[in-house]
Amino acid sequence: MTIWAIGDIQGCFDSLQRLLDKCRFDPAQDQLWMVGDLVNRGPQSLETLRFIRSLGASAITVLGNHDLYLLMVAANAVPRRGKDDTLDPIFAAPDVAELLDWLKTQPLAHAQVLDGQRYVMVHAGLLPEWTADDALALSAEVSRHLRGPQFAAFLNALWGDSPLGWHKQLNELDRARVIVNAMTRMRFCSKQGVMDLKIKGKPENAPVGHVPWFEVPGRKTAKDTLVVGHWSALGLKMTPNLVALDSGCLWGGHLTAVSLPEREVIQVSCTTCR
Q1: Arithmetic mean of pLDDT over the chain
Q2: How confident is the model at residue 159 (pLDDT cuts 50, 70, 90)?
Q3: What is the DSSP letter of 161?
Q4: Rounded to 5 degrees, what angle do the CA atoms 231, 253, 200 make?
């Protein structure tokens, strides 16, 4: 079995199919790890959702910020994003309820030991004070809300940037907002684990007192290998303990697959996605 970790698709379904052909992906024996942002902005979010769902156990997916945006729009929790929103074909599809129900069951974090090394997959990142076990427990905490009867009210409460840091005394909804923002939106945080959710761009754009989340000294997941997406300006970045996969397919870059744990890199050009 080959495990292929795949970067942000964002509705670039044709690019995904070309990439999987190039990888010689066989769902009968291989597995995909999807780092989130399956949908939105690209032209084929519906086809992407249907395909990944059809793979069953051959695809492991974590939720990204655009996947949560889809769920929030469906629950009337947030306003639509105008021209950046390409979700109408999903809402018009006869299987929309099944697709959204499937999406709600996907976690924020996944962890697995491969060749003696623990790999942790999230869309954006983890706060420095969280261990991998913490991340899985916190992901499960959010999943219980998404799968529960009050999911629409929960999604309404997720909107917003604060609190920007973690402490155990947070109330239930503030906890969930920090968990979701860190795991699906974070790029920069301070050495004390305070996020900046406004600044984008390359690592050198870090606001004063902040660094890329994976460079925080003493991060408790420093000995694990984090598999992430979300940060297209960072591009494909691989270090001994990081596999960052968002290589800007939506923006005319590449869609990237990396085999785990071997780290073979396969890419396709995405110049026609938009």
Answers
A1: 95
A2: confident
A3: -
A4: 25
